[in-house]
Design brief:
The protein has 157 residues and is mainly alpha-helical. The protein has one domain. The chain is 69% helix and 0% strand. It contains 6 helices and no strands. Helix 1 packs across helix 2.
């Protein structure tokens, strides 16, 4: 994952914070790594999408309703991104392997660049005659992540 994508991944993590874990799990890295990689692949795909959103001109819609549909879709993608980041870490905690844990934690880094995506969406909202509260969006994301995590969790082998 490139530095810009890592930064965009951090958009959603700055507000939600990172849950720490100090104990090491007992599962072998060979069992845990594929599960972590599953989430990292989704994180990478979503981060690439957000990189495109940030670097592209704002889309313009014929109505506020159309804008809101687009915006809700982007927020839903953020929820999914955060859920995958959290789930990758939850999986990685099952092993004591430092490499697996580092891989799972990598998307959480660079929190200083966390506002890029919402700033862009705020600009686009204005261009489309709409507005939103960034804090309200973060609260919505926070509320929805646990359910999304449950939806994306892989069955245990």
């Amino acid at each position: 994952m490139g530095p810009r994508r890592l930064a965009l991944t951090a958009v959603v993590l700055g507000v939600l914070g990172a849950s720490g874990a100090f104990g090491a799990g007992t599962k072998p890295a060979a069992v845990v790594l594929p599960r972590v990689q599953y989430h990292l692949q989704h994180i990478d795909e979503l981060t690439q999408h957000f990189e495109t959103v940030v670097t592209s001109p704002c889309p313009h819609f014929a109505s506020t309703d159309e804008w809101e549909l687009y915006f809700d879709g982007e927020v839903d993608r953020v929820v999914t991104l955060v859920a995958h980041v959290e789930q990758a870490w939850r999986e990685a905690k099952q092993t004591g392997d430092d490499d697996v844990r580092r891989a799972a934690k990598a998307p959480r880094k660079r929190l200083e660049e966390a506002r890029t995506l919402l700033d862009k969406l705020q600009q686009c909202a204005g261009d489309n005659g709409a507005a939103f509260s960034q804090m309200g969006v973060w609260k919505k994301i926070e509320r929805q992540v646990p359910q999304r995590q449950a939806e994306i969790t892989q069955p245990q082998p």
